[in-house]
Design goal:
Keywords: Signal. InterPro entries: Papain-like_cys_pep_sf, Peptidase_C92. It holds the Pfam family Peptidase_C92. The chain is α+β, with helices and mostly antiparallel strands. The chain has a single domain, classed as Alpha-Beta Complex (endopeptidase fold (from Nostoc punctiforme)). 34% of the residues lie in helices and 19% in strands. The chain contains eight helices and ten strands. The strands form three sheets. The chain has a six-stranded antiparallel sheet. The protein has a two-stranded antiparallel ribbon with strand order 1-2. A hairpin with a 5-residue loop joins strand 9 and strand 10. Helix 4 packs across helix 7. It is globular and about 45 Å long. The two termini are 27 Å apart.
Length: 261
């Protein structure tokens, strides 16, 4: 394919997918570069398989499972993950699910999910961990934010207009903030869906991952907050990839309509 045609095809694909992008300005040693949001996540992609011994309290586990609900979430967000879990330490996790907030063993999560990948927020200390764990356990039994999930699904799709390639970051952030205020204003913050719960735990611990409202953030957004990726919602600091606790890939529909694993 000739270069002009390649550029045109790339531009068309970006416009259709509306993946978040960022232009890195040139420096004395590097040319300008266009960075595109990536959903690639696999041990063979520079990652590694790890055991639970590699985890630390406060680690964020992103997962997917072979269910219709999980597939729908991944299809809507063009990402290979559909659920977020907070690791408490000592082989225990806390999570928000349909029945409400619960605590259970990490072994159960690994047994049930198709993929479990761990990320770590830098800068946590013992005091952060203790506050995070205490708050998370105090929320066990809190109802699930069903309305928030129902409102978040169209928001994830509609906000892609704000992420069109070439839109300056301040404009994109203003667009997304306005859209979230209108579309998610009716969602309650006294009950939680999975990623909202994880972000609220960090906020309550005094170590917020983002300045955005936790109700705006999906598991896919947490995935894109990792180092080297382009986040849709800015993070205070990029999350560090720790490793995969389990990897049995399930089909994912990508932004261009192709099926991948």
């Amino acid at each position: 394919m000739k270069f002009p045609a390649l550029v045109a095809a790339t531009g068309a694909a970006l416009l259709l997918s509306a993946c978040a992008s960022r232009v890195d300005l040139p420096t004395r040693d590097t040319p300008p570069a266009l960075r595109i949001q990536s959903s690639a996540i696999a041990p063979g992609n520079g990652g590694e398989l790890i055991t639970a011994a590699s985890l630390e309290p406060g680690d964020i586990l992103l997962t997917s499972v072979a269910t219709l609900t999980s597939f729908g979430i991944r299809l809507g967000s063009f990402a290979p993950v559909s659920h977020a879990v907070l690791y408490l330490g000592d082989g225990r996790i806390a999570e928000a699910v349909g029945s409400g907030v619960r605590a259970r063993s990490l072994a159960e999560v690994i047994a049930e999910e198709q993929m479990v990948v761990a990320f770590r927020a830098p800068g946590l200390d013992a005091a952060h961990i203790e506050r995070m764990r205490a708050w998370a356990l105090s929320q066990v039994g809190t109802p699930y934010n069903t309305v928030g999930v129902m409102l978040d699904a169209p928001f994830v799709l509609n906000r892609r207009v704000c992420e069109l390639p070439g839109v300056p970051s301040p404009v994109s952030n203003f667009c997304m903030t306005g859209m979230a205020t209108v579309q998610l204003g009716a969602s309650r913050n006294d009950r939680f869906f999975c990623s909202q719960f994880v972000l609220e735990a960090y906020k309550q611990a005094g170590a917020p991952i983002t300045t955005a409202d936790p109700r705006w953030v999906s598991p896919a957004d947490l995935l894109h907050m990792r180092e080297g990726d382009v986040p849709s919602i800015p993070a205070t600091q990029p999350l560090r990839y720790v490793g995969h606790l389990k990897y049995n890939p399930v089909p994912v529909i990508t932004a261009d309509g192709a099926t991948s694993r």
